[in-house]
Design a protein that fits this description.
Layout lengths: L1 H5 L7 H20 L5 H8 L9 H24 L1 H21 L3 H29 L2 H33 L4 H19 L14 H12 L2 H31 L6 H12 L2 H12 L1 H24 L4 H20 L2 H9 L6 H25 L6 H18 L8
Helix pairs in contact: 2-6, 2-7, 2-8, 4-5, 4-6, 4-16, 5-6, 5-8, 6-16, 7-11, 7-12, 7-15, 10-14, 10-15, 10-16, 10-17, 11-14, 12-14, 13-14, 13-15, 13-17
Length: about 400
């Protein structure tokens, strides 16, 4: 048994591995951000009397993804990482086809929920796959660089979505999801070896799952990481849910929204590699704590600007810059929090990733949906919610145990 555990697992080059994992993560960004330009048309066609309900096309996907993480991790611990990623991709593709054909908003939301369930495979199992090969600060470094692709993809996703809508209508976006999934899982199938040997797999027994769940959830770093991630996801999903309406209805810049969103993504993207460099020297916990308090201060400043009565044209640019800081904070928080929580749980990385992802994502999706529905024609409710979520997260991080060097 010892020989099996110590047997080396074949690895891709670091660059290709980071690119592949980044593409797995980017499934989520593409599935959400490419839909943003379609919201006005979806609202007009499927829910003209309540346009804000079109936001549920985004949050239903996130909710499905959160629910899917409850099973994808344990399944990957039992059957291996690659088979579960491939099965999730199949479910994601079925959801995309159903969404393409959905005649009502209710059915579209249900199809997006199914898509989210499938997307949990690439998202959660990829994280466990990284943990199979790396740990501690080195894992945080790999995740940070993979997150660079995740953060860069939103720069082009709305532009892709807008181009598809212009040429083929909003339903064709779901065909692009199908193509993206086939490319990413094809790359994984051909190039990445299985990272969980058969001898190390854990059978799908209820008693073992409950024991693993108790072990994971009994750790303070796991508990606090879930809480802080839920707050951060709530801020992020609330921002994404309302951003198109703020650009369009509040500031009258809906026509250029995909380009502005691309600029936001590009300006915030360097934070992930910066974190990858700093985390080895400074540690994960201090970076997360500082990022949360900096964002809380930025949001307080934005509230002052929104209440200051400055001209709308000037106010828009402050909102734009503030949104850059919101997305930038992701680069200094989520990867580090994942690595902090999984550091002592390599033997149940799939199950632990599932629990963490499910609880944080579902909680964040519900919180983000509530924040998005508070939209009142201004960015003020969003700014207030951001202060509350990040300041609370900053306080919680004071109790996070220190990581190993």
């Amino acid at each position: 048994m010892t020989d099996t555990i110590q047997a080396p697992i074949p690895r891709l080059s670091t660059g290709e591995f980071i690119a592949l994992m980044g593409m797995m993560f980017a499934t989520i960004a593409f599935s959400i951000d490419a839909m943003l330009p379609a919201l006005p048309e979806i609202a007009q066609e499927l829910t003209p009397n309540a346009p804000t309900l079109a936001q549920l096309v985004l949050t239903s996907f996130v909710l499905g993804m959160g629910l899917g993480t409850l099973v994808t991790g344990p399944l990957s611990d039992a059957f291996g990482r690659k088979p579960v990623i491939l099965a999730g991709a199949g479910l994601y593709i079925i959801g995309a086809l159903l969404a393409w054909a959905a005649p009502t908003l209710e059915l579209l939301i249900a199809a997006r929920l199914l898509q989210g369930l499938g997307a949990a495979g690439p998202r959660v199992v990829a994280l466990a796959l990284i943990r199979d090969l790396y740990s501690g600060r080195q894992m945080a470094r790999i995740v940070s660089f993979a997150m660079l692709i995740f953060t860069l993809f939103p720069a082009v996703a709305p532009l892709i979505g807008a181009a598809i809508i212009l040429g083929f209508g909003w339903r064709a976006i779901f065909v692009s999801f199908l193509v993206f999934s086939l490319i990413s899982v094809g790359w994984l199938t051909l190039r990445q070896s299985e990272t969980l040997p058969v001898a190390l797999r854990r059978p799908m027994r209820v008693t073992e799952l409950l024991a693993g769940a108790r072990e994971a959830l009994s750790l303070r770093q796991m508990q606090l990481s879930i809480v802080v991630q839920m707050l951060i996801f709530g801020m992020l999903f609330g921002t994404i849910s309302s951003i198109q309406q703020i650009f369009d209805l509040t500031y009258g810049r809906g026509d250029l929204f995909p380009w502005y969103f691309a600029a936001i993504a590009l300006l915030s993207a360097p934070c992930a590699p910066i974190n990858g460099t700093l985390v080895v020297r400074l540690g994960m916990r201090p970076l997360v704590r500082r990022a949360l308090w900096v964002q809380a201060a930025c949001a307080v400043g934005m509230i002052g600007i929104l209440l200051g009565g400055i001209p709308s044209g000037v106010e828009f640019w402050f909102y734009f810059l503030w949104t850059v800081t919101v997305f930038s904070s992701m680069g200094f928080t989520i990867g580090n929090l994942n690595a902090l929580a999984l550091e002592p749980l390599g033997h149940i990385a799939g199950l632990a990733s599932s629990l963490m992802g499910a609880l944080a994502t579902v909680g964040g999706a519900v919180l983000g949906a509530l924040i998005g529905q508070l939209y009142d024609g201004t960015a003020l409710p969003l700014a207030i919610a951001t202060v509350l979520t990040t300041a609370t997260g900053g306080v919680v991080m004071r109790y996070m145990p220190r990581e190993a060097a």
